[in-house]
Write a structure and sequence with these properties.
Blueprint (H helix, E strand, L loop, with lengths): L23 E5 L2 E6 L8 E6 L8 H12 L3 E5 L10 H5 L4 H4 L4 H21 L2 H16 L6 E7 L1 H9 L6 E5 L8 H4 L5 E6 L7 H12 L6 E6 L6 H4 L5 H21 L2
Parallel strand pairs: 3-4, 3-5, 5-6, 6-7, 7-8
Antiparallel strand pairs: 1-2, 2-4
């Protein structure tokens, strides 16, 4: 059994995207929430974003939520960190893009490792499963109780990716996880009973080929549960949310990962 597939400095890397979110902020259940609605306001197909360590206010997350709303989904992005997400400054300070890493000195790399080592462990302890999962479950229950809500799905990134997988154990109607971290294999996948889609980067340092193969083996046994696993060539951890738009290949991967989720939810939330 492979457990505790963890986090590294790549969880703290990426690019901030251009654009202005157009949704609104309201209280939903017990959590502050960014909400982006489709043009017709329908809640028939509802998607809950389970965020990465940078949280619900991260502009990339809100811009992507707006895109899902444009595609016809009613989208909620709850503050599951309760005001304690990691600061956006880490995106630029902790780890540069892959193309820049080749020129980094050993001293610079050591500094990055030290920052991650002092930042992530206490944060992960504070937001461990025993605390975070009940918050997520309660939020899903609150959303299901909103008048007009139809089927509900979750999309998760990195830290939130694992919780989206866990939600596919039965809490939601369909789930999508992009480059999840901290997953336990096979444990987190054995309980999957709802349609699950996965988007993984070929060069994700947190999910090596052996672990991905183990995930595929577990899901292959679930012949009664719709599932898919797509591997994106030359993409690193975080690519679906924090990739570099100036790179044609990275932008294409982000667009395709978005389309993967939209198509999945159109199929299984209808």
């Amino acid at each position: 059994m492979s457990t505790g597939v963890g986090m590294s400095s790549c969880c703290l890397s990426g690019a901030i995207h251009e654009g202005t979110p157009v949704g609104k902020v309201e209280k939903c259940g017990e959590l502050n929430t960014y909400i982006s609605a489709p043009a017709d306001g329908s809640k028939a197909k509802t998607v809950i974003f389970l965020v990465d360590i940078f949280g619900w206010e991260f502009k990339n997350t809100r811009l992507l939520a707006d895109n899902y709303a444009k595609a016809g989904f009613y989208v909620y992005v709850p503050d599951v960190h309760q005001g304690d997400s990691l600061p956006i400054e880490f995106l630029q300070a902790v780890e540069p893009p892959l193309k820049a890493q080749a020129t980094m000195s050993l001293v610079d790399k050591a500094k990055n490792t030290a920052v991650v080592g002092t930042t992530l462990p206490p944060w992960l302890l504070k937001h461990r499963e025993a605390i975070s999962r009940p918050l997520i479950d309660d939020f899903i229950t609150a959303v299901r109780g909103i008048p007009g809500t139809g089927k509900v799905g979750t999309i998760g990134f990195c830290w939130g990716g694992r919780y989206s997988i866990l939600c596919a154990h039965g809490q939601v109607d369909a789930a999508y996880a992009c480059h999840p971290s901290l997953v336990a294999v096979p444990g987190d996948f054995e309980g999957v009973s709802k349609p699950l889609s996965l988007a993984l980067g070929e060069k994700d340092s947190l999910l090596d080929a052996k672990t991905v193969g183990q995930i595929q083996d577990v899901l292959a046994q679930k012949t009664e549960v719709p599932h898919e696993l797509r591997i994106y060539e030359d993409q690193v951890h975080g690519f679906a949310l924090r990739g570099d738009w100036s790179s044609e290949k990275d932008k294409k991967a982000m667009d395709e990962a978005e389309a993967q989720g939209v198509e999945w939810f159109r199929k299984y939330l209808s």
